[in-house]
Design a protein that fits this description.
- The protein has about 110 residues and is of the alpha+beta class.
- It has one domain: Winged helix-like DNA-binding domain superfamily/Winged helix DNA-binding domain (Arc Repressor Mutant, subunit A).
- The chain is built from six helices and three strands, in the order ααβααββαα.
- The chain has a three-stranded antiparallel sheet.
- β2 and β3 form a beta hairpin.
- The chain is elongated and about 70 Å long.
- It starts with 9 loop residues before the first helix and ends with a helix.
Length: about 110
């Protein structure tokens, strides 16, 4: 089965690790392309291509400030990703509770010894 185009939806867009890195940097606030280039250690054309994909699927917004293009994460666009991953929250909570219970049990056993 052929893989969907990276511009078809947010899930396909973030399948690429560099795009996830860009989103992580943009989560901290609005940034110019040049800042992302330095932070990621990538060439400007590559960063711009990734930003274009992220913008096309609605994960980032852009605004012009003079000659600079400023990018920021788009919370509304990221919401479907968040909601999907949230479905697995219960799984992680359950696993963390089991780990905590095992650690506490071992601590009690160590105290008895």
């Amino acid at each position: 089965m052929a893989r969907a185009a990276t511009t078809s939806d947010a899930f396909n867009a973030v399948a690429e690790p560099r795009r996830r890195e860009i989103l992580e940097h943009l989560a901290g606030g609005e940034r110019p392309v040049g800042d992302l280039v330095v932070r990621l250690g990538m060439e400007q054309p590559s960063v711009s291509k990734h930003l274009k994909v992220l913008r096309q699927v609605g994960l980032v917004k852009v605004r012009r400030h003079g000659r600079q293009m400023l990018y920021q994460a788009n919370a509304d666009g990221i919401r479907p990703l968040y909601e999907w991953t949230k479905t697995f929250e219960r799984l992680w909570v359950d696993q963390l509770l089991r780990i905590k219970e095992r650690a506490e049990q071992k601590a009690r056993e160590a105290e008895k010894a």
